Structure formats: structure tokens, C-alpha cells
Amino acid sequence: MYDPSNCGIVSCSQADWDLATKIMHSGRMTRLRDYAEFFQGEVNETNERKRGALANGPKDGTLVNRGAGICLYVLREESQGEALYLDVDKFLAGKGEDTKAYHHRQARVALQESSPQNNFRRIIAALAPRGRFFNHTVNYCPEARSVLTLQFIVAILNSKLADWYFRLGSTNAHVSHYQLYNLPCPRFADSLSSDAMKARKVAITAIRASDTARAFRATRPMLLSPPFSPAVQEILVNAVDRIIDIEHARAGVARTDRSALAPEAQPFQDFIDRVLYAMAGLSEDEAAGLEDRLSRML
């Protein structure tokens, strides 16, 4: 039940094991593999250097984003390492438009390919605009390879539920595709009821007013049983958009401050986590216990 594709050996407490298998037995959640496909960064530094596709600097090429620049929800200036620049014309020469070399034309969810087991988070994901290039230290999902909106994929990846579930079966610093595919993801219905449309309007209005308590009250009736209303996706997308706007407004964020969202953004993250806990069928006590054990995994 934890990972039917790989049957990895899980090392965790009995409480975590019981909760993980309960979530996947419930039928409320499926796997992220059903909705999204991930790739490794398209720029292999060794190969492209041999091909002469790397540029000398920003005047001659386009910046290649690395894992060090991926923070919660947004890309930032890289905190370590030497900047890498790409001669785009040379890089694309001879590559078909159906290859990942052209994924830069799409918006993408990008996440760090590696994070230490004692890191503040194992999964760190950002929404990347069109026109960005990534090296091999980044995993990503392009817009065309996701059934769900990219903001919702980011919400899943940056949730405490995903970070907890990932840690149960991770034995090294890598964040591999098969581990991402194995993450729990809510099951959604195809249609939207009139009641859901009304609740969606109330919740989104509350989010825009920074009233996350009211937003959750409006959303809660749609979280009782699967498959869940598509309205929940839209509500969480609005919460993600608020986080991204707030995080983009933070200028010159020091490396030591990147592990936390801005105080103004955190209530929206708490709202996202609360909604996903409810979708997974967790009681408030179970969610609190999960967070307590997650804090001790660091």
C-alpha cells in the first residue's frame, strides 16, 4: 500500500506506518503519477560543454537555473556555485521540438533533485515561468505533461503531507521521479455541482481577503468524500497564487531565511495543509500527530 510499484522497504514508526496505509486504503487518494510526468533538467553541463553550447557570461547566453535557486514556490538568485550560461541556438541545434530541450517554452513546476535527509524539507518546489532552462540538479514537470494545474502540483509537493510521506521511504539525499510518482494525490470528479460553485466563490473571496479560516469553512463540505470537486483545485490554486505574490515581493532574501515563507504567506500554506489533510481523511488529532512526528524526522 505504501509503494506498490517499487515495494521499497520503509523505515518509520508504527504510528506513521498505520497512518500511511490507512490513507492509501481509504480510496480518497490516488498517486501523483496519474496526473503528472517529471523530467530531469534538460541541460547536462558536461555534454553541452563538449558541444560548445555553454556561453561565457550573461552577455553571450541565457542563465541556466540550478537546484540551489529553487525555493518554496519561487525561483531566487542561486545561493551557491558558479553561474552557468547557455548559448540557446547552439543548444537547440539538432534537437527535435518534441524533445525536452524545448520544454523551456512551457511554464513548469521545478524542484530540487537533491536535499539532505536532515534538511528542513525534502521536497522543495517552485513555479517556473516560460523561458527558463534547468540543469541536471533540477526535476521538473512541464505544463503539457500535467492533467492538473501547475499551481495545484506545487501545492501538493510543498505540503507537509507530501514531505512526510516521502520521508517514510527515502534512504538517501535524492528526490527521484519514482518517489514523486508515489506521492498521494486526491481523487477528483469531472463535474462541478451548483453547490460547489457557490462554495468556491465564497472560499476564493475569503482567500483574497486573507481570511483563511472562512475559506476553510466554505471548502470543508467538499472534503467529506471522494471523488472531490474540481472547485477544491481552484481554491488551492488561489492560495498558491497569494503565496507566490507575497514571496516575489520579498527582495534580497538571505540564504538563512529561505527555509521559511514570509509571515504573510504562512497562513495560506497552513490552509493548503489543512485542506489536504482533510482530503486524505485525517482527523485533527491525526494531522497534529503527523506534524509532531515530521518535526522529529529532521
Write the layout of secondary structure elements.
Elements: H1 14-25, E1 29-31, E2 39-40, H2 45-50, E3 54-55, E4 62-65, E5 84-86, H3 88-92, E6 108-112, E7 125-128, E8 133-134, E9 138-142, H4 150-157, H5 160-168, H6 177-181, E10 184-186, H7 194-208, H8 212-219, H9 230-248, H10 266-279, H11 284-295
Parallel strand pairs: 4-8
Antiparallel strand pairs: 1-10, 2-9, 3-5, 4-5, 6-7, 6-9
Helix pairs in contact: 4-9, 7-8, 7-9, 8-10, 9-10
Shape: globular
CATH architecture: Alpha-Beta Complex
SSE order, as H and E? HEEHEEEHEEEEHHHEHHHHH
State the oligomer.
single chain
Any overview of this molecule?
- 38% of the residues lie in helices and 11% in strands.
- The model has no long low-confidence stretch (mean pLDDT 95).
- The chain is globular.
- It is of the alpha+beta class and 298 residues long.
- The strands form 3 sheets. Strands 2-9-6-7 form a 4-stranded antiparallel β-sheet, covered by helices on one side.
- It has helices at residues 14-25, 45-50, 88-92, 150-157, 160-168, 177-181, 194-208, 212-219, 230-248, 266-279, 284-295; strands spanning 29-31, 39-40, 54-55, 62-65, 84-86, 108-112, 125-128, 133-134, 138-142, 184-186.
